[in-house]
Amino acid sequence: MSRAHAHPALHLGFTANELASSPYARFYNPDLAPLPEHVKEALQIGGQACELFPPVDKVGGLQTPGYWPVETGYTVAPDGAVRISVLTPMPRVTPAMWDWWFAWHGCASERYKLWHPRAHVAVGWADGRADLAYVGRTSMVTEYVGSSLFEVAIRFVPPASLGFDEQRLAADGEVVICARVGLAKVPILTGWLVHHIRPVPGGAEMRSRFWLGGDNVRPVGMPGVLGGFIGRTAYRLQPIKAEQVRELMVHDAQEMNHLAGFLPDLYAAFGPGAVASAEGGLRV
Amino acid sequence: MSRAHAHPALHLGFTANELASSPYARFYNPDLAPLPEHVKEALQIGGQACELFPPVDKVGGLQTPGYWPVETGYTVAPDGAVRISVLTPMPRVTPAMWDWWFAWHGCASERYKLWHPRAHVAVGWADGRADLAYVGRTSMVTEYVGSSLFEVAIRFVPPASLGFDEQRLAADGEVVICARVGLAKVPILTGWLVHHIRPVPGGAEMRSRFWLGGDNVRPVGMPGVLGGFIGRTAYRLQPIKAEQVRELMVHDAQEMNHLAGFLPDLYAAFGPGAVASAEGGLRV
């Protein structure tokens, strides 16, 4: 992630004008729910053993019933690479709502801001299109993590490319969002993110996973040994700090918990079943 | 703030002799109340977006009813400057009690220690006088913040000089304490502090604000461009660390919460209405 300077026109939150005119204003709530207890405990515990966090090439294992040793917590590996896990219980939510959300929010900053009103600044698709799809596309986001503003390129990839059985996901009513994370202004890939959403009684649960830094860093288009060497070397010059790891865990927990609180209502208002009756739903 | 070495005669807490002879001993409680839940959560959240914390030249906005986006939390701005906010609910307390406290405590270390018995070491007015006033005067304090001992010069300034409407403050029964914070041993200003106390049902609430480092740093008597350049350059050599920001937030929350617990009784015993009956009240 690259630290960015805010463009003057970019701003956190909805302006008075946006609150008055945005079709999404009624879903904009600048007050976040309190941090869930299990997230607070994970922050207090701090870094944990790397072996408790499977590597990204084993992420397909999320499809196996049950839980990983650490569902909420983080580790810093010997090479400085970071792995973060966050579990978010989501009553009333279905996995399909999140599949819709990841396509829908990327078209408009006003949508993106609903998700984390205290950190999300701007979003747009790299291809400039406004259709409802995300796999294979790159979302360019500007957001705070902690006190620092970052410009990030999120390249969504098919779950199968990371080892998920997509037919079985569909059969089980599960959704997995997978992406290669990188810098927006320079062609450097910095890590991976995966959000696995599966049905549970009364709703769904999201299991978020991040692998960042170390061997995950490499120049775009250089998946081989040389790219790995360049990436690791670059990372050693500016490794992720422990404080940043914690801030990223807080950020993910906050945004997922916050949106889950009103996602069913947002989906009813702007989701696939509501498009005909809500023209504003596609307004950018 | 400058790190100091404790003078041998300086000590934390009340000695056995002080406990036996000090007129304030019955108000000395070395046990602090637990950190309020909202402060714990702010510590767990960590740094937040700078845009959520108004700059010092907008501090007069505290007089507007309502709350700021973050009432308890901190940010580190792109230039490394720090902004900290702490909200302290204070049942039974009135704003006038704090106005009295800021003048009264500065005359004697035994009074100052009541406020934060685990961090406050010594206090005295730079002008050596012992009268009850603080605006326009400089309080020289020696206190721990975290594990480090600091000697700080706190130059109290009129609220109007920071943009407050003093007539309206008086009419609303509100009190604002404003000060320029600096090093005690060298003529360097490091930041600003503001405590806004307003009545709420059942008592009062204090909204503390700190702006430290970065552009807030400058040599005493050099408010212009050159002073700003010198200040920013000096600050880059020794910026405030994230750990110190958290420690300062804890320190403020502890001292305000602790004193608020017995300030009404202290005020009854030594405040303006009690001077005649409590000769010891003015003893240094």
Q: How would you describe the overall organization of this protein?
A:
2 copies of one chain form a homodimer. Chain A has helices at 16-21, 37-45, 95-104, 109-115, 166-172, 225-237, 242-260, 263-270, and strands spanning 2-3, 73-76, 82-91, 120-125, 138-145, 148-157, 175-183, 188-200, 203-212, 218-219. Residues 1-8 and 277-284 of chain A have low confidence and may be disordered. The first copy, chain A, is an alpha+beta fold and 284 residues long. The first copy, chain A, has one domain: 2-Layer Sandwich (Alpha-D-Glucose-1,6-Bisphosphate, Chain A, domain 4), CATH 3.30.530.20. In chain A, strands 1, 2, 3, 4, 5, 6, 7, 8, 9 and 10 form a 10-stranded antiparallel sheet that branches. The first copy, chain A, is built from 8 helices and 10 strands. Chain A binds chain B through residues 3, 5-6, 11-13, 30, 34-35, 39-40, 43-44, 118-119, 144, 146-149, 243, 246-247, 250, 254, and chain B through 40-41, 44-52, 69-70, 74-78, 242.
Detail the topology: elements first, then pairings.
The structure is a homodimer of 284-residue chains.
Chain A: E1 2-3, H1 16-21, H2 37-45, E2 73-76, E3 82-91, H3 95-104, H4 109-115, E4 120-125, E5 138-145, E6 148-157, H5 166-172, E7 175-183, E8 188-200, E9 203-212, E10 218-219, H6 225-237, H7 242-260, H8 263-270
Antiparallel strand pairs in A: 1-6, 2-3, 3-9, 4-5, 5-6, 6-7, 7-8, 8-9, 8-10
Number of domains of chain A: 1
Q: Strand-residue fraction of chain A? A: 25-35%
Helix percent band of chain A: 25-40%
Structural class of chain A: alpha+beta
| CATH evolutionary superfamily of chain A | START domain
Number of helices of chain A: 8
